[in-house]
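Our collaborator T.R. sent over the components below with a one-line note: 'Predict the complex.' Nothing else. No constraints on interfaces, no templates requested, no preferences about which chain binds where. So this is a plain run: every listed entity goes in together, and whatever single assembly comes back becomes the starting point for the next discussion.
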Amino acid sequence: MRVVLQYTKQGAMKYVSHLDFQRLWRRLFRMADIAVANTQGFNPLPRMRFAAPLPTGFASCNELMEVFLAAAMDLDELLGQLNRFTPQGMDILAATPVPDSFPKLTALVDALEYSVELPECRVLPSAVEDCVPDGSTAWQQFVLAAELHGRRWRLLLASIEQKTLRPDVLVRQFFPEFDHVAIIRTGIFTRNRNIKPVPQGLSLLID
Amino acid sequence: MHWHKLERILPHVQKPARYIGNELNTVIKPAEQVEFRFALAFPDVYEIGTSYMGFHILYDLLNKMPGVQAERVFAPWPDMEAKMRESALPLYGLETGTPLGDFDIIGFTLQHELSYTNILNMLDLAGIDPLAERREGLPLVIAGGPGAMNPEPVADFIDAFVIGEGEEVVSEIVEAVRNGKVTGLDRSGMLRALASMTGIYVPRYYERRNDAAGRFIGVFPVEPELPQRIRKRIVRDFADFPLPEKVVVPLVESVHDRVSVEICRGCARGCRFCQAGMIYRPVRERPLPVLVQQGLTLLRSAGSPELGLSSLSSADYSEIEDLIAAIQQEGHNVSLPSLRVDSYSVQLAELTRAGKKTGLTLAPEAGSQRLRDVINKNVREEDIFTAARAAFENGWQTLKLYFMIGLPTETEQDVQGIADLAVALEDLYREIHGHTRRLKINLGISTFVPKPHTPFQWAGQMSKEEIETRQNLLRERLRSKKFKVQTGNWQESRLEAVLARGGRELGRAIYLAWRKGCKFDAWSEHFRPDLWAQALAEAGVDSEAYTGPWPLDAVLPWEHIDVGVSKDFLLREYRRALAGRTTPDCTFAACSACGVCPAFAVAPWQRRKSK
Ligand code: SF4
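Returned assembly:
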């Protein structure tokens, strides 16, 4: 049974590296006694995939991963079981079943949304305001939106063939005076590529 | 406050998750319920410390005591240390972020001599004076573990040592200090109370004495009621002593991704260089049903894929095969961390392999039969070959072999024997498979360090030249790509010997070394032999005096520590070693009268069947 899980990675948990976090997920399923299907091969691993790795140090209130359960089960029960064990800062918010024919989660990601909290109010440099999705510089092609409201900077960054831009690169570029900004990933988006039905967990769409 | 500062630091350090706590299965009590704080301090980095089983046991025991909050703390890596100092963030317990200075007890474990400077550094990072005599009030700084079997080198920094097994004594210590707080005892009152408890050594109540000629004659109590010798503690009922149902699961990948149960304590094989084999006697086993039940509980509560069956010699556990089968039956992997060199062990390794492509580890320790007899590694040439044959025939392609060089009586001939053995094993592989395409033989070559309470405690180390000649000899002879030779740093083993065999006079040198910036001495990238040499010289310590051979009638700096194994036995064993005579394992053959069983009034081991 293929399931997409939506979850948070906040507070202290944001300092856990992607690799360690994957290990933590495997443990959580074992602790909750939920069998996960294994990958093929000599060194089989539980079959799970993450929509887009979150760099160490970034929080997220909206992460997605998919997992192949060894047997079908009630999804409310799944959520309840897993949430009994998650450490502080990690909450599993929703579980959505998806058909096996559904494309890989990683292949669906077209954009990532971040909220950057600056220590002080700033006005956006025009370079960013002017930038357009098909801009010429390497970083500009990734910036789909960059709106600064007071101290909060909303960034929508494209993911093109699983390549994207780290928001801290933009922070360093435009606000080098701040050595500490909090960055939260707020959404993972996909274009509606005529996939029907669009599963709930992936309902954040641009276009 | 704590978290606010941390948030500014963590983005700038490697592996920040080392410093956040928040792991699965941590215990955090509501502050209003906590009246006593105990810090379990490991003087090395997080990943090393979290795989140390002893802490998991103490953590569980302490946190089960009402009102007690046990927290863990590890040595911050130098990048983190710099940031902490810069922002005046004192070292804190991982569970609640409480600064170490606000604890009642800080308990260090002494697993390795080369982590001693980290103890001073951690205390300093907590704003606590590393020198015990300059401290006031709480916390008390205590220490245990194998290093405490010669406490003298770190006696200046530690208020009280736990000698022997900590499971029972730790709660007694907490009770004593807690009572002391209630009745208004001051620091020395509390320490005096601890000094009168069995298995606790409080160095301020003991002094070193010299005779008229200035020769060291031992360490003696300054008050007549205190014991002359401190007898180590052992757990009264090891077999039934409750094990934790859950352990903290590290967030940062530790050395091994597994949980462990201790299936057996002590080892009577009697390798003459091995400190663990002497200080953890007598040999005791846990019953099979207890281990199966505990193992499965732990696996579930840690969400772990693998159970380590830990002991000094796992294959010696009476019902090892049944134990492996019972755990595997529930769908879990099993690992055996320490195997003997024989075909039975290979059979066990085969049982636990579970599709893993890891290598097989064997530790013959010495390259010639003569020298293996000297060190009492009861392994015959043919054991090595039958073990290797069994391994190769079962498809193992990587062999890890551990050897020691610089052993007492060793000649270059013996070291040639290591190379001969490796080459012969390569030939054996070729004979079996017709080629050696996939074969890898890794040789870990460490340097002998004489350790307190072992038959080799009197033996000296070889000179720099002799060690380097031997290391080069092996590298030269084993140049083929089939072999990988890893040798230790000569200077590190020297320092290890000095710190292992030193007396209280070493305290000054350790202090000076730390002041000069020494820390993480066991990590080659941080080890600073130049600074250590300066520190030793300034403290007036002649390292040669600690690395050289000692006369058999010398008064040893750890004579006042009684581990139950008698000095007579050690001496007998040393003499047998020099005569090339072996002594059998008393759990399979006759008692060799080491003294432990009568000392602790336990019945000698019922014979095990040799497998
Ligand atoms: S006293 Fe005898 S039986 Fe007991 S551990 Fe020592 S040698 Fe073995």
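Summary for T.R.: The longest helix of chain B spans residues 412-433.
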